[in-house]
Amino acid sequence: MKQEKDWYKELVIYQIYPRSFKDGNGDGIGDLKGMTEKLDYLKELGITAVWMSPVYASPNVDNGYDISDYRQIMEESGTMEDWERFRDKAHERGIAVIMDLVLNHSSDLHPWFQESKKSKDNPYSDYYIWRDPAPDGGAPNQWLSVFGGSAWEYVEERGQYYLHFFAKQQPDLNWDNDEAREKIFDIIRFWNDRGVDGYRVDAISYLDKGLDGRADMTEAFGTASCANLEGTHRYIREMAQKTIKPDNLMTVGEVIIRNTRDARDYTGRSREEFDMAIPFVPPVVEIRTWSPERFKKDLEETYECLKEDGWWARFLSNHDKPRQVSLYGDDRRYWKESAKMLGCYLHTLPGTPFVYQGEELGMTNLYLPSIEEYDDIDTKNYYYTMIREGASHEKALSESQIISRDNARTPMQWDGSANAGFSEARPWLPVNPNYTKINAERQMEEEDSVFRFYQKLIALRKENPVMVHGDFRLCCDREGPVIAYTRSLGRETWLAVHNFSGGKVRFDHEKLTGHGEVVISNYEEPETEQGSVTLRPYETLVVRV
Ligand code: GLC
Ligand code: CA
Hints:
The chain is α/β, with parallel strands linked by helices. It has 16 helices and 21 strands.
């Protein structure tokens, strides 16, 4: 699809986690054929781009984030013809196709690594990061991997350790090697030539490892001080220049953001790195630290920092987080209210909204009864690390259940039939038993469903430039559960008010009247009066003022 300048600002991007979306050939695993079948559903929802998590050849140690051949489609996902068919059918419906680029590391089964590990003097020897053992034979330094344990793995054949920020089956590529870098850029060009519209670039904050002289860092890399080094920015700019800018493709980088400077460095237009950024926060940290107060602080800071020269990726969910209604809302008592409120919040903020599959139905977390039933490598590592450190089985399991990325990876709930209509076979990960109540078929029929609410929000965004380009101003107390802001463009001003709590709260605003024009809300009649409104549990309200 030929794109205008700044086209990414108007998109609503839908993330598909292919394994869990729709099985098209009855083997229990979602695939490209299933994704193509469901394009009409996505069209009806109204989204304008799909980002698919990786479908390249992979042994699936980390569900496709470990790639063994960047130019092939993995068997479980289908064939290159299936991918091309998906692309064509998506484009016919005006839906852009965004691929996931995993370039920090490959799979250990990638031919480059298979060669690299053989000796110190083969042509691929420097494509990965190898170091001699420490004098005592141990790892070269104390670095820990994101998934737990040492970030170094010893290979007998070569007599050296290689670095892996993630699982040991995900060796880090050496971006300092010019030839390796060019080969990586060729991979991107390969997909550009196949008509991809943009990329989500995975775990891209650590290209420059800053390895030398840093021995004793023992934090996991998610928060580590080796993120965002100058060399990393230099490589990203080189990549953008050589592969992205010539075709005006959209990019969103998954990065570590510790302060406003990091945000600006990655997404400032003048920097020519990414159009926007997905900040990575480990689920454990997000669960412990989120609050409406923190949201307000972040909103203000990131708005100020990027309003002149950058842009925001907005999301509450993805395949690495618990379900949003379970995390930020109330998935029991106020399930529907809070699912809608979070959707309204997402779509009325400045930036491009990212909707994660099933969020538009208010899908919830699922706690599996034993660690064996989990698939996620991160969940398993977390559990076994806790056990090793002396935690009881009960404690380790209950913590793992809450943080598990599998909460977001249970199969999509299409209808009330067996396996939620996801597959005729037993799905690779259990279906949430609440599918009989929470499913797409049912919600497409009900006027008042979460699905219909999302559909309305997405339609509103297409018709009202104020939602895309309007200025943003927070206009609520910095304390307390109410998040309220105005968006203004020309003569148009909208006031959005969200109650992030299960209680009633009063909110004052001079521009509120008893009969302001309600753009959207999740309760029948808003209780507005002159100058104030009484918000009910998880109420959300947008009015023209
Ligand atoms: C990103 C992905 C995550 C993956 C990791 C390693 O954070 O979103 O799913 O495990 O990178 O590739
Ligand atoms: Ca399948």
